[in-house]
Each structure stands twice: as structure tokens, then as C-alpha cells.
Amino acid sequence: MLLYSGPTIGNKRHKLFISFSCNCHCKCQNLFNQERVACVYTGDADLNKTKISSIFGGYWNQVGTIQIPHHGDIKAFNPNELSSGNYFCPISYGSNNSYGHPSTKVISEILSYNSCPISITENPVSIFIEIIK
After folding, report:
1. Bond from prior residue into 7 cis (ω within 30 degrees of 0)
2. Which residue ranges of the chain lie beneath pLDDT 70?
3. What are the residue boundaries of the structural domains of the chain, listed by start?
4. Could you tell me which of 54, 75, 37 has the C-alpha nearest to residue 2?
5. Which distant-in-sequence residues (6+ apart) come within 8 Å of 48 by Cβ?
6. Of 23, 30, 17, which Cα lies nearest the Cα of 87?
7. 7-32 pLDDT per residue, tens
């Protein structure tokens, strides 16, 4: 299941407020763009089988946040979805999981597309809040 959360096409009246704890080495502040306020939640989608940028068509230019699917598993990730711009990329996973999620290859690919991986775990200091007003 995929979910778009954001304004309708052409609605420019919204402002974006983001708060998160960043432990990466990218320049996350440079990604902040109040015109790209939407988020796509991917759950356990397989980005090799589903082209989310096509599914959301006219809404895609408003997307600034893409949840990385399946806890950052490399088998469900396609870095080409990041090629159209800089994104915030929250990845939700358990810090002591036995699967090795997120994949270091996924983290590398996100960074190579000038996007920002954001680790979200059960640790209370790992938090990502996005408010659209």
C-alpha cells in the first residue's frame, strides 16, 4: 500500500515545518524546500515493481519526503526514484534487528542522490516530524 500525504495539485498555500534529529553527514538543511511539502509513505512496497513517481504523476513535484520501504531492505529499494530531486528519506527499523536493516547500500544510494537518510528507531531521540500548515 502506498500513501500520498500532501496538498492538492497547484495548491501553494501550505508551509512545511520539519523537526528531526540528524545523525548523517549530508547537508539536510539544504534540502528544505517549502514548495515540496508532500510525503509518500511506502510501507512494504517494492520499488523495483512499482514506480511511485508515475503513480503520483502530477503530485510528484510536491513530494519532498519519501519513506524508504521495508526498513531499508536493498531488495525492495530502487534508487532511480530519487533521481528527480533531493529528498528527506526516513527509514524505520529496529536498532537490534537480525536482518541488518537498513542496508548500507541503501544508505549509500540515498546519499549519492543528494538526499538525506533519516534513521527512525525505537530510540526516543530518533524522531522525524513533518507538519504541513
Report:
1. no
2. 10-34, 129-133
3. 3-132
4. 54
5. 75, 76, 77, 78
6. 30
7. 877 666 655 555 555 555 455 555 55
